[in-house]
Design goal:
The chain is mainly beta. It contains 2 helices and 16 strands. Keywords: Glycosidase, Hydrolase, Signal.
Length: 237
């Protein structure tokens, strides 16, 4: 993304933030604003917590600082096939409702997962809430999912590889997943009637499966590959 476009996005985000403050709307329905263009160097930056743990099966790698960095205005989350390390970040800020959009380029190796999602709680328990965009099967399948109280509702769609802009809109009574074209027009991919109101943190991760039955069923067979997932920017409005 050019510096001029990123500046325009930042300006729009600031205007939205000022408008939200001026409106003074209270309560859970008020969506917070957020933007990160991943400029500069170093790790993810002060708005993010970088993971340093291993989630266990079906994850076939452990998250580490070494696999998260900025490069030429993008955030890189790397899967290192040699060391068994991979990358994950999550915002310090929590969100309730809003539109969550990113421009990203998924990795294309078999058995990998490039993600953009909201999450809270302990997986598979009543405390678990989650809204997902996951690019799997070499980046050719878009996995959309919403978890409510530990119960999931997912649908998958074929998708082109390469750079693309994707997002989801989370409101009181629905979640809508969408793609954005070069002119800024949105195409709805999925619209799911669901009521979720628990605050969640925004997360990005890139990992590979451990070739357990669950991992193969979800991601496909991992054949030893690795590589980068790239995120040009992330926006919440």
């Amino acid at each position: 993304m050019t510096l001029q476009i990123k500046r325009a996005l930042r300006a729009a985000w600031r205007i939205a933030s000022i408008g939200a403050i001026a409106a003074g709307t209270a309560g859970a329905a008020q969506a917070a604003s957020f933007f990160d263009g991943f400029d500069g160097t170093g790790g993810a930056g002060p708005a993010w917590e970088t993971a340093t743990w291993h989630n266990g099966t079906p994850f076939g790698c452990g998250f580490a600082y070494s696999e998260v960095w900025k490069n030429a205005g993008t955030l890189v989350l790397n899967v290192n096939a040699g060391t068994g390390r991979c990358g994950e970040v999550r915002t310090l800020q929590s969100f309730t409702y809003g539109k969550f959009t990113t421009r990203l380029k998924a990795s294309n190796f078999a058995g990998g997962n490039t993600s953009f999602f909201l999450y809270t709680g302990t997986a598979g328990t009543p405390s678990h809430f989650e809204i997902d965009i996951e690019l799997i099967k070499g980046g050719t399948v878009l996995h959309t999912n919403v978890w409510k109280g530990g119960v999931q509702n997912y649908k998958q769609f074929p998708i082109a590889t390469g750079w693309q802009t994707l997002g989801f809109e989370w409101r009181e009574n629905f979640v809508r997943w969408f793609a954005v074209d070069a002119q800024g027009g949105e195409t709805t991919i999925r619209h799911q009637i669901v009521s979720v109101s628990t605050p969640m943190r925004l997360m990005l991760n890139h990992w590979r499966g451990d070739n357990s039955p669950d991992a193969i069923g979800f991601l496909g067979q991992w054949n030893g590959g690795g590589g980068q997932a790239q995120y040009d920017w992330v926006k919440v409005e």
